[in-house]
Amino acid sequence: MGQQTIIKLVDENHMPQLGLGVWKASNEQVVGAIHTALEVGYRSIDTAASYHNEEGVGKALKESAIPREEIFITTKLWNDRHLDASTALQESLDRLQLDYVDLYLIQWPVPEQDHYVDAWRQLIELKEAGLTRSIGVCNFHIEHLQKIMLETGVVPTINQIELHPLMQQRQLHSWNATHHITTESWSPLSRGGKGVFNSPLVERLAMKYSKTPAQIVIRWHLECGMIVIPKSVTPSRIKENFDVFDFRLEKEDLTAMAELDIGKRIGPNPDDYNQL
Ligand SMILES: NC(=O)c1ccc[n+]([C@@H]2O[C@H](COP(=O)([O-])OP(=O)(O)OC[C@H]3O[C@@H](n4cnc5c(N)ncnc54)[C@H](OP(=O)(O)O)[C@@H]3O)[C@@H](O)[C@H]2O)c1
């Protein structure tokens, strides 16, 4: 297996390009999943207060012999805590049994509430206080990004957005890149590969490279420069999803992947997602 790739963020911190997503994994499931992942070589875990499994993540980290500073931990601020980010992060740290996280993200802009600039100001202070090494956002469209950058002058390191072959987000990815914001793909497998793994193109590429459809899709994210966090609690899949550093997709195959983009969302549109 080849060497995993590491991305340098705009704040000079480094983040593994491939991590483990843990949404919908229970506290019990997440402990086993993280142990398997760390054994295989993953060094990045993506959780959130809203996933209700930070305790499990903390337990797995406590049990692991791998030093804390070698593992990159992301958690997220939920929508009803935009005016209360400092307490919310401290609660996450308590559940994770950590002194700091590596990345703290605002999970949704919640435009109707319109407190995301206040939340961003607090995240800037939390970084200065050393409670998170990097700060970023999720599900921000260009207007939301422009607003926080204009009001504070601080560029988010990451914009974590829904991004997979059926919804390739080329315009937003390119805008992020122009502003030195790294794009991170959520639901990178279209949540289990529906409509992707069985497409003739991905099936053909899987045959060509002697890889599985999931590995082809993960490799596509890596080569397009995204950070990618496929979720699995299944040991064989956790291993499969990490076994992607020993091949590269040829340029013509990367280009061909564009044909799968039908702009199909799995999750909500951030412009009208206002759930608290
Ligand atoms: N910021 C946000 O708003 C946001 C929103 C959604 C997700 N996320 C993050 O992004 C992560 C990934 O997104 P996601 O969980 O929605 O979807 P995903 O990673 O695209 O897909 C996960 C699903 O695919 C299955 N799977 C995993 N590897 C597979 C493989 N090799 N072959 C076949 N099936 C496979 C998993 O099943 P098993 O687990 O049963 O193996 C699970 O059902 C989340 O866990 C979370 O950390 C963030």
Automatic annotation (TrEMBL):
Pfam families: Aldo_ket_red (PF00248). SUPFAM superfamilies: NAD(P)-linked oxidoreductase (SSF51430). The record marks 76 as: Lowers pKa of active site Tyr. The keyword Oxidoreductase applies. Residues 18-261 form the NADP-dependent oxidoreductase domain. One of its GO terms (molecular function) is methylglyoxal reductase (NADPH) (acetol producing) activity. Its EC number is 1.1.1.274. InterPro entries: AKR (IPR020471), Aldo/ket_reductase_CS (IPR018170), NAD(P)_OxRdtase_dom_sf (IPR036812), NADP_OxRdtase_dom (IPR023210). Keywords: NADP, Oxidoreductase. It catalyses: hydroxyacetone + NADP(+) = methylglyoxal + NADPH + H(+). It comes from the Bacteria. The keyword Lyase does not apply. The active site is at residue 51. PANTHER family: 2,5-DIKETO-D-GLUCONIC ACID REDUCTASE (PTHR43827), NADP-DEPENDENT OXIDOREDUCTASE DOMAIN-CONTAINING PROTEIN (PTHR43827:SF3). Belongs to the aldo/keto reductase family. This is 2,5-diketo-D-gluconic acid reductase. It comes from Xenorhabdus khoisanae. The gene is dkgA.
